[in-house]
Design a protein that fits this description.
By secondary structure, the protein is α/β, with parallel strands linked by helices. Helices cover 29% and strands 27% of the residues. It has one domain: 3-Layer(aba) Sandwich (Rossmann fold). A seven-stranded mixed beta sheet has the order 3-2-1-4-5-10-9, sandwiched between helices. It has a three-stranded antiparallel beta sheet with strand order 6-7-8, with no helix packed on it.
Length: 234
């Protein structure tokens, strides 16, 4: 299988429009999915919760479900997504619940709306596996830039062998991507390769956990806690 076209991340807005039209909760159909994300992120947080509220950024925040959970717990939360519909949805969700969170349309490859060394924590809530090829290094570099020295990057991403027959129909093992209409849509690499990517970007990897798939047609989840070195400026 050969990829002829580059990824088109802006197509995510079409999905969010469809989800919103049918009054879905968000990208995940069940609230349990966001609670599970919180349980995976929580172990990285205690050592950072000192003094003033921690500045938290969620990349690929979607409809804001997870960002709102963090805001309800007292974090100063920002969320970015390339899909305008998602950002509008997230902003309305935070307002309706009565929590303060800042949501912006932005490209995670550059994070132009975020200042250098402005974040204590950056959370990848299942965004990185949507980033393809050399764009992944750009995304990781942007995250490193916006983190404060000593800040934490938490990666939650799909990984492992693809066994789902329907997914195998679109999966290109040469690039480890699913392909739809000639465009790559998801990167599903092995855990070691993903961890190596994060380390190569300049992070110090402090913990790695693989959450086994729930059934044979599912995928494993990889959790990586990575720190921006204290002596790294910019």
């Amino acid at each position: 299988m050969t990829t002829q076209l580059p990824p088109d991340y802006a197509l995510h807005d079409i999905t969010y429009r469809r989800l919103r039209e049918r009054d879905a909760l968000g990208w995940d159909a069940e609230a349990d999915g966001y609670s599970e994300m919180l349980s995976l992120v929580a172990p990285a947080l205690p050592s950072l919760m000192q003094g003033t509220p921690q500045q938290v950024l969620e990349i690929g925040c979607g409809a804001g479900n997870f960002s709102v959970l963090m805001a309800q717990r007292g974090y100063a939360v920002s969320g970015v997504d390339i899909a305008p519909t998602a950002i509008e949805w997230a902003t309305e969700r935070a307002s309706s619940i009565g929590v303060t969170a800042r949501f912006c349309v932005d490209n995670v490859l550059t994070l132009d709306t975020c200042a250098d060394a402005s974040m204590d924590i950056v959370i990848d809530g299942h965004c990185l596996h949507c980033i393809i090829g050399g764009d992944r290094a750009c995304c990781l570099a942007a995250v490193l830039r916006v983190l404060k020295p000593g800040g934490m990057f938490v990666v939650l991403t799909m990984c492992g062998d693809v066994t789902n027959p329907r997914m195998l129909e679109t999966f290109d093992p040469a690039t480890c991507t699913t392909i739809h209409a000639g465009r790559p849509t998801r990167y599903i690499g092995d855990a070691d390769s993903i961890v190596a990517e994060v380390a190569a970007a300049g992070f110090e990897v402090s913990k790695v956990q693989i959450i086994p798939r729930k059934d044979g047609d599912d995928l494993d989840d990889l959790v990586v806690y990575a720190v921006k070195p204290e002596d790294l400026i910019g």
